[in-house]
Specification:
The structure holds 2 protein chains of 2 kinds. Chain A folds into 2 domains: 212 residues, Response regulator (Rossmann fold); 108 residues, Rossmann fold (3-Layer(aba) Sandwich). Chain A contains 15 helices and 16 strands. Chain A is globular, with a radius of gyration of 23 Å. In chain A, 53% of the residues are buried. By secondary structure, chain B is mainly alpha-helical. Chain B has one domain. Chain B contains 11 helices and 2 strands. In chain B, strands 1-2 form a two-stranded antiparallel ribbon. The longest helix of chain B is centred in the N-terminal third of the chain and has 30 residues. The chains are: A alpha/beta, B mainly alpha.
Chain lengths: 395, 289
C-alpha cells in the first residue's frame, strides 16, 4: 500500500514537473533571430564569435524573463546556419531562414556570401547584418543589408592619419590573403593611403589562405623596409604568424590591421613580438566597457569556456535588432516598418560607458542609414592585452 | 638566392613528413586518407595542450602527440576501415569513409579545442642572420633538422626492422605477404597507426612554428595529396621527393613571382596537371599501381 502511494506521489510529482516545465516554456512566445555565417574551416573564428555572442545574449535575456516588445514579452531563439564561407551555402541558409519565417538575420561574414544572399533577403522581407564591406550592399537600390561593423575604408584612414601624426609614418606596404575580402580591403586601403600622401612601397604581395609559414611570403616586402606594414583583412588565425615572421625578419616598423583580433591568440602565437600591433576592436577595454559589457564577457566565458575578443564588435547586431523592434513593434513582421524606424532610431549604448548611442549611420558612405553605429575603437596590443589607442565615430 | 634555398629546404622537409604518413597508408591499404590533415591538426593540438597549456617538456609533449595519434589511427583502422574493406569491393567506400572521418574529426576538434588559432612558446629564441643573405629563426632550423632526422629514422625503420619489412611486403603484394605468413590484419593496423603517428609527429613539430587551428586539416590534406601525386602514390621515396619539390617550387615562386600577385600556386597546379598528363603515375610510381 505504502509502495503504491509512493509511486502515485512520484507520478503526480513528475506530471506536475512536466506540466510546470511546459507551462514555463509556453509563457513567452518565441522570437526567432537568424545567423548565417561561417562556423567551420579556417575562418570559423569569425562566425563562431558571432553565433556565440548571439547565443550568450539570448540566454541572458531568456534567463531574466524575456524581452519586451510592445505588449508582448518574447523569449529569443537563435537559429544558426553554417555557410562554410560558400556563397551557395549562404543562399541556402538565407532560404532556410525565410522558410522559418525569420525576418532578421545576422551575417554573412564575407563579401561574396553577403552579395549572394541579397536577392533572397530582399524577396523574402529579411533584414540582414553582414560583416562585409562592398558599398553596393548598402547603397540604393539595395535596401535590406545593414553593415554590422566599421568598414576598413572608414577605419583605415583614421589609423593612417594617427600614425602619420604620432609616429611619423611615411611609407607603407600592404599584404593580403588571396581572397575577395582581403583583396578588396587592400585596394581600398591603398587608395586611402595614397590619398593621405603616404608612399605605398609594396601592394601586390599576397598569400594563400592556408599558408602556415609566412617567412617566404614576407621576405620581398622586408626588402622595401616600410614604416608601416598593413595586414589587410587578416584573419585572427594568420595575424600572429605574420607578425612573428615580420619581426623575425628584422622588421622594426609599425604593423596594423583594420580587422578585429583576439588578445589571447596574439599572445600565444606571437607573444611579445606582437607588442605595438594596432587593430580595430569593440568596447571591452577597461576604459570603455560598461558593467553590462563586463557581465556579457563573464557570461560568454562561463557559457563557452573562453571569451573571444572579436565578440566586442559582434555583440551589437542582436542588440540593434531587438532595440529597433522595441521602438516599433510592428516591425516584427514588417521590415518596411523597420527601415522607416531606422531613420529616427536612437537608444543608449548599453555596452559602453558614457553617453554613447545606438543609432543607424552611413549617410556619408552609403547615402542611407545602413550601418550600425559601433564605436571605432582602435586598440594597440601590449603585453598580452589590448589598450585603447583612440576612439572615433563613423558617419 | 641563399634565402630561397634555405626556405626550400625548410618547407620541403616539413612537406615530406606530411606526405610520408599519407603515402604509407595508401601503399598498405589502397586507402586515400582524406582525414590525414585532421590527424595532423590533432597532433598539433595535443602538443599545444601538453607543452603550451600544462607545461610538459616539449619532447614529452611531442611523444604524447605520437602516441595519441598512433592509438587513434589503430582504432580507426580496426573499427572503421578494416570492416569496410572486408565488406565492400568498391574502392569509393573507403574514400567516402575517409571523408566522413575527416568531417567527424573536424567537429570533434571544434568541440574539444575550440575555434581559435593556438600557439605555443618558442622552443628556442633568436634568429640566424648571415649578413641579411639568409635569415632563419633558430626554431625553424631546429624543426627542419628534427624533420630530416625523423624521415631518416622512418626510412631505417622501414628498411631494417622486422615490422618495416612486413609492412613493405604488405605494400608490394598483400596476397603474397599473407602466404608468406605475414599477419595482414595486424600489420594493416600497425601501418595505419604508423601513418597517423607521422601526422601527429609533424603536427606536434610544426605547432611551434605555425600554430594550429581547426581549419588547417583540409588544406594540409590537399597539399599532402599534391606531394603524393608528384612523387608517385604509395612510394615512400616518392613522397619525400614530392614534398621537397613542392617546398622548393613554393619557395622559388614566392620569391620570384611576388610582384605578379599570388600566382605561385596557380603555376604549381598548372605544372602538376601537365606533369600528370605526361606521367600519371608520378615520378617514382609504377604505371601498374
Amino acid at each position: 500500500m505504502q509502495r503504491r502511494a509512493l509511486m502515485k506521489a512520484a507520478m503526480i510529482a513528475m506530471t506536475m514537473t512536466a506540466l510546470q516545465t511546459t507551462t514555463a516554456l509556453a509563457v513567452n512566445p518565441v522570437l526567432k533571430i537568424g545567423f548565417v555565417g561561417v562556423t567551420s574551416g579556417p575562418a570559423a573564428s569569425w562566425g563562431i564569435s558571432n553565433q556565440r555572442s548571439m547565443e550568450t545574449r539570448a540566454a541572458w535575456i531568456n534567463e531574466t524573463g524575456g524581452y519586451k516588445i510592445g505588449d508582448t514579452t518574447y523569449d529569443i531563439e537563435i537559429v544558426s546556419f553554417d555557410d562554410q564561407k560558400d556563397p551557395k551555402r549562404a543562399i541556402a541558409g538565407m532560404e532556410k531562414m525565410a522558410q522559418e519565417g525569420i525576418h532578421y538575420v545576422v551575417g554573412p561574414n564575407v563579401d561574396d556570401g553577403a552579395a549572394a544572399v541579397r536577392p533572397v533577403a530582399e524577396a523574402n522581407g529579411i533584414m540582414y547584418f553582414p560583416y562585409a564591406f562592398p558599398k553596393s550592399l548598402y547603397t540604393k537600390p539595395a535596401s535590406n543589408a545593414i553593415l554590422g561593423m566599421v568598414a576598413n575604408y572608414q577605419s583605415g584612414p583614421a589609423i593612417y592619419k594617427y600614425l602619420m601624426k604620432e609616429k611619423g609614418v611615411k611609407t607603407v606596404a600592404f599584404i593580403a590573403a588571396n581572397e575577395s575580402d582581403p583583396l578588396s580591403q587592400r585596394d581600398s586601403g591603398v587608395a586611402a593611403a595614397k590619398a593621405l600622401g603616404l608612399d605605398v612601397v609594396s601592394d601586390n604581395v599576397t598569400y594563400q589562405v592556408d599558408t602556415t609559414d609566412f617567412t617566404p611570403v614576407l621576405t620581398p616586402i622586408m626588402r622595401e623596409r616600410p614604416d608601416l606594414l598593413v595586414l589587410s583583412g587578416v584573419s585572427p588565425a594568420n595575424a600572429p604568424q605574420l607578425i612573428r615572421s615580420a619581426r623575425e625578419l628584422g622588421f622594426q616598423g609599425v604593423i596594423s590591421t583594420e580587422t578585429a583580433q583576439d588578445a589571447g591568440v596574439l599572445t600565444e602565437g606571437a607573444g611579445d613580438l606582437a607588442n605595438g600591433f594596432i587593430s580595430v576592436g569593440g568596447a571591452s577595454t577597461p576604459e570603455l566597457a560598461s558593467p553590462m559589457m563586463i557581465e556579457f564577457v563573464d557570461r560568454y566565458t562561463k557559457m563557452f569556456g573562453e571569451y573571444n575578443d572579436e565578440s566586442n564588435t559582434k555583440v551589437y547586431a542582436l542588440e540593434y535588432i531587438l532595440e529597433t523592434l522595441k521602438a516599433d513593434p510592428a516591425a516584427i513582421t514588417d521590415v518596411t516598418a523597420f527601415q522607416t524606424t531606422m531613420d529616427r532610431f536612437e537608444a543608449a549604448n548599453p555596452y559602453m560607458k558614457g553617453d554613447a548611442k545606438l543609432r543607424y549611420v552611413g549617410m556619408s558612405s552609403f547615402g542611407q542609414r545602413r550601418q550600425v553605429a559601433v564605436p571605432l575603437v582602435v586598440n594597440v596590443f601590449q603585453d598580452g592585452a589590448f589598450e585603447t589607442l583612440f576612439v572615433a565615430e563613423v558617419d | 638566392m641563399e634565402q630561397i634555398l634555405a626556405n626550400g629546404v625548410y618547407l620541403g622537409s616539413q612537406y615530406a613528413m606530411i606526405a610520408l604518413g599519407l603515402t604509407l597508408i595508401f601503399a598498405l591499404m589502397n586507402v586515400l586518407n582524406f582525414a590525414h590533415g585532421q590527424m595532423y591538426v590533432i597532433g598539433g593540438f595535443v602538443t599545444y595542450t601538453f607543452y603550451g597549456q600544462l607545461g610538459v617538456p616539449f619532447v614529452l609533449a611531442l611523444l604524447m602527440s605520437c602516441i595519441s595519434l598512433a592509438i587513434l589511427g589503430a582504432l580507426i583502422e580496426k573499427f572503421l576501415f578494416a570492416p569496410v574493406i572486408k565488406g565492400s569491393k568498391r574502392e569509393e567506400s573507403t574514400m567516402l569513409l575517409a571523408a566522413g572521418i575527416a568531417f567527424l574529426l573536424d567537429a570533434l576538434i571544434l568541440l574539444i579545442f575550440g575555434e581559435k588559432q593556438r600557439g605555443v612558446p618558442k622552443i628556442i629564441d633568436g634568429v640566424f642572420n648571415w649578413d641579411f643573405r639568409v635569415i632563419m629563426p633558430y626554431d625553424r632550423i631546429l624543426i627542419c633538422v628534427l624533420a630530416i632526422l625523423s624521415i631518416i629514422c622512418f626510412i631505417c625503420f622501414m628498411q631494417y626492422s622486422k615490422t618495416g619489412r612486413a609492412l613493405r611486403a604488405l605494400a608490394q603484394d598483400r596476397t603474397a605477404a599473407q602466404l608468406m605468413g605475414v599477419n595482414v590484419d595486424r600489420y594493416s593496423m600497425i601501418g595505419f597507426a604508423l601513418g597517423a603517428m607521422l601526422a601527429g609527429l609533424v603536427g606536434g613539430l610544426l605547432v611551434t612554428i605555425t600554430g594550429i587551428n581547426l581549419g588547417m586539416g583540409g588544406p594540409t590534406s590537399i597539399k599532402a595529396f599534391m606531394m603524393v601525386m608528384i612523387g608517385g602514390a604509395g612510394v615512400i621515396s616518392g613522397a619525400i621527393a614530392g614534398g621537397i619539390i613542392l617546398g622548393f617550387m613554393e619557395a622559388i615562386g614566392l620569391a620570384v613571382l611576388s610582384q605578379y600577385g599570388d600566382i605561385t600556386y596557380l603555376l604549381i597546379f598548372v605544372s602538376l596537371m601537365i606533369f600528370l598528363a605526361i606521367r600519371p603515375q608520378g615520378l617514382m610510381g609504377k604505371p601498374w599501381g
